[in-house]
Design a protein that fits this description.
alpha/beta; Nucleotidyltransferase, domain 5; 2 domains; 5-stranded mixed beta sheet; 11 helices; 44% helix; binds 5'-O-[(R)-(carboxyoxy)(hydroxy)phosphoryl]adenosine; binds zinc ion; Gcp-like_dom; tRNA N6-adenosine threonylcarbamoyltransferase; cytoplasm; acyltransferase
């Protein structure tokens, strides 16, 4: 048989998701139950609350994904599940759900690293060409990954403190915007100008690592100083200036990495790749250097299970398997 059909399951943070993907490239179904509205009133994701909602949703979402895909259980090749990294209680719901379904239907189980899922969301847009550089920027991650072939991942840059999305969420909170702050900052920034000179953390010469804690403190100090002086805050200018600083560092370091490995493609993925300034500046920079750029559509940038099934397809074809002793791992290495 030529088709590879994989059911993917993702529960690492606050989205319960299941999807069926054909050959790692075609989405047959993509079901997501978001908990954003539930966590908003707490100002962030509450792990225990997340786990409970995953428990409520996991069966329904898996059934929805299977129904919509019009694929029979007996036609599936495997079940792929996010093993980590993420919130341990949340991960366990997906892992145990996947184990139960794999056992019940006699299917192989394929463990997937969440970051590789974000990278593989790009394969729904275009076939990957190697070597490539992927920038994964989300609420939990800021990673530059070098891939020389399918399923091979070398992390060549990472954050030394906050993830890019975390910085967005914290600055949004400082500006009184609701969780998750990234999209709110993005929208607010459109009404402002990047006129405030916030720092850019380049770190040591040649380093591909990131740091956002200095920028975060600079923005918070700026806000406090302005308030103390009794000035009206121009939140839109603050948002635009903060966003410009994050974007400039992300774009420049990604381009340096791409040139260093002679990348044939640059991929961007994770929640922050939904950011309008990151997208436009990355597009401009990649075009100037003549390197093809792929960024998934917004729906595939944030957590979903189609990306887990896509990465799981590669794992499945390479023979990666887990047995029923599989456990979630909060800080799983790539
Ligand atoms: O990939 P994702 O859904 O979950 C994680 O794996 O973390 O990413 C969520 C993060 C949040 O921090 C959110 O604020 C950020 O992505 N985000 C954005 C935008 N949309 C989502 N950050 C900046 N601009 C956006 N438009
Ligand atoms: Zn994610």
């Amino acid at each position: 048989r030529q088709k590879t059909l994989i059911l993917g399951i993702e529960t690492s943070c606050d989205e319960t998701a299941a999807a069926v993907v054909e050959n790692g490239t075609v989405i047959r179904s993509n079901a997501v139950a978001s908990q954003i509205d539930i966590h908003r009133r707490f100002g962030g994701v509450v792990p225990e609350v997340a786990s409970r909602h995953h428990v409520d949703q996991i069966t329904v979402i898996c059934e929805e994904a299977m129904d919509k895909s019009e694929v029979a259980w007996s036609d599936l090749d495997a079940i792929a599940v996010t093993q980590g990294p993420g919130l341990i209680g949340a991960l366990l719901v997906g892992v145990n759900g996947a184990k139960a379904l794999a056992y019940a239907h006699g299917l192989p189980l394929v463990p997937v690293h969440h970051i590789t899922g974000h990278i593989y969301a790009n394969r729904f847009v275009r076939e990957l060409e190697f070597p490539l550089i992927a920038l994964v920027v989300s609420g939990g991650h800021t990673e530059l990954v070098h891939m020389s072939q399918h399923g091979s991942y070398e992390v060549i840059g990472t954050t030394r403190d906050d993830a890019a999305g975390e910085a967005f969420d914290k600055i949004a909170r400082t500006l009184g915007l609701p969780y998750p702050g990234g999209p709110k900052i993005d929208r607010l920034a459109k009404k402002g100008k990047p006129v405030i000179d916030f720092p850019r953390a380049w770190l040591e010469e040649g380093s591909l690592d990131f740091s956002f804690s200095g920028l975060k403190s600079a923005v918070i100090n700026y806000v406090h100083n302005e308030q103390q002086r009794g000035h009206d805050l121009n939140a839109a200018d603050i948002a635009a200036s903060f966003q410009a600083s994050v974007s400039e560092v992300l774009v420049k370091k990604t381009l340096i990495a791409a040139e260093r490995v002679h990348a044939k493609q640059i991929l961007v993925a994770g929640g922050v790749s939904a950011n309008s300034v990151v997208r436009t500046e990355m597009e401009q920079a990649a075009r100037t250097r003549g390197i093809p750029l792929i960024i998934p559509p917004l729906k595939l940038c944030t957590d979903n299970a189609a990306m887990i099934a896509a990465s799981g397809t590669i794992g499945f074809l390479k023979g990666t398997r887990a047995d029923l002793s599989l456990n979630g791992k909060a800080n799983l290495a790539i």
